[in-house]
Structure formats: C-alpha cells, structure tokens
Specification:
It comes from Aureimonas fodinaquatilis. This protein is mostly helical. Helices cover 60% and strands 3% of the residues. The chain has 11 helices and 3 strands, in the order H-H-E-H-H-H-H-H-E-E-H-H-H-H.
Amino acid sequence: MQARSLTRIVVRLAAVVIGLLVLLPVLLVLIYRSEAVRPISTLMLAEHFSFQPYDRQWVPLENIAPVMIRSVIMSEDGQFCSHDGVDWAEMSAVLDQAFARGGPSRGASTIPMQTVKNLFLWNGRSYVRKVLELPLAIYADAVWPKHRMMEIYLNIAEWGPGIYGIESAARYYYNRPAADLSARQAALLTVTLPAPLERDPANPTAGLSRLADRIQARARGAGDYTACVNNGG
C-alpha cells in the first residue's frame, strides 16, 4: 500500500511539473507582448547560472538600421509577413525532401520558430524540439505583432561567444550602434546567424562574403516582403 501511495504521489508531482512547464511559456508569451519587458534567451540564462560573462544591450526596433531588418527577413524567413508563425509550404517541401533522401538537407524554421526556440527551448537538432516549436510559434505569432516579434528576435539572437542581440553585435564587430549599420555590415551579420560561434562577420571568409553578396541583393529587392515591419505591424 505504501509503495502504491508513493507511486501516486510521484505521478501527481510529475503531472504538476509537466503542467507548469507547459503553462510557463504560455504565460510568458502574454507578458512579453509588452514592450516594457526585455526577454532573455535560454542561452543567456545558462551563461548567467554558469557565471559566464555575456553582453546584451536591448535596443528598440526603431533604433535598428532598416537594412538589417530587411536582410534578416530575406535570409531567414522570406514569408515572415504572410505566414501564421509557420511556413507550411516550406515545411511541406522539406518533409518531402526528407522522405525522398532519408533525411532533411535544409531547415524550415521561421523567425517565430527560432524566437520561441531561443526563449523557451534548447539548441541542437531534435524532432521533439521541432514538435514543441510549432504550436509555440503559432501562438506567439498570434499574440505578438510582427514588429514585436522581430524586435525580440533581434535582441536575443546569438552573434558570437557571449554576444547576444544586434546592438551588442554591431558594437563588438564594427564599433557602431545597430542604427548605423551599412548594407554590407547588415548582410555579413545576417549570414553569421546560422553558425555564430564559427563565423566572424568582421573577418569573413570568401565563402561568407559570397553569401553576404546574395543577402545584400535580396535586401535591396525586399519590397512588400518586409512591409509588415516597415509599417509597425
């Protein structure tokens, strides 16, 4: 009898813990809608609790060079202004490719998916994490205006060892505020995002420079692809 009682207590406790873990992101998304709140990422939390120094200087979206915003959208999530948090067409294409080749050769993460991953989940390839990302991304995209989504993303993204957010990255690599980034600097910072611990936008390799050329061209022709952010949507 005592063993059964102990088992029931453990099961109930586990259910409570799981419930709290599910509820916490839901509540935090609501709280983070306020522009007075400056969220931090799970990576920043890890740095803090392991007593590692890191630099993050929050900056409003209005104080980030528009070309930086255009570059990130055109590189990371071209349908940012039109989808509901998940680019279902791209997701379907990636899944079809994965089934055909036995594994995905590219990702389909949108900016909302990357944002909720940075805020609430963990890094690394994981189907479990992807499953959790989808509803969180849709929920966050419904709660936050696109303007706020982009502001949070650019202020929590990792740009190097202990470097978080576009303001810290701009000052570290180019000794200037994010508001004064040039088109070339914006493109180089953007192509650093997929591998921030391996790429150096201040000293780019030939391959990184070619990627930046491509993003620079896309940013010039962004047009309506970035209208939701340009209009404060």
